[in-house]
Amino acid sequence: MSDTTTLSDVMMRKKDMAEFFQCSVRQVELMVKAGKLPKPVYIGDASPRWQRKTLMEWLDRLQTAESAVSQDD
Which three-class secondary structure string do you get for the chain? Predict the structure, then answer.
């Protein structure tokens, strides 16, 4: 982490995830439960967080997989 990067720049809360995906916090919870989003890491018992870098890598892999499927058609 650089000197100007804060933990909030690196870790996303449920609220941040909902804003990013333009959905409700409940929808984020449901997508995680259904395996449609990566599982969070927990800070304490009830503080789920997603690493922004991990989420972006996951989205890149998802996009690559979808591109490969569409090219096979």
Answer: CCCCCCHHHHEECHHHHHHHHCCCHHHHHHHHHCCCCCCCEECCCCCEEEEHHHHHHHHHHHHHHHHHHHHHC
Q: How far is CA 31 from the centre of its chain?
A: 10
The CA radius of gyration of the chain, in Å to the nearest whole number, is 14
The model's pTM is: 0.76
Query: Where does the pLDDT of residue 14 fall: very low under 50, low under 70, confident under 90, or very high at 90 and above?
Result: very high
pLDDT of residue 2: 55
Amino acid at site 41: V
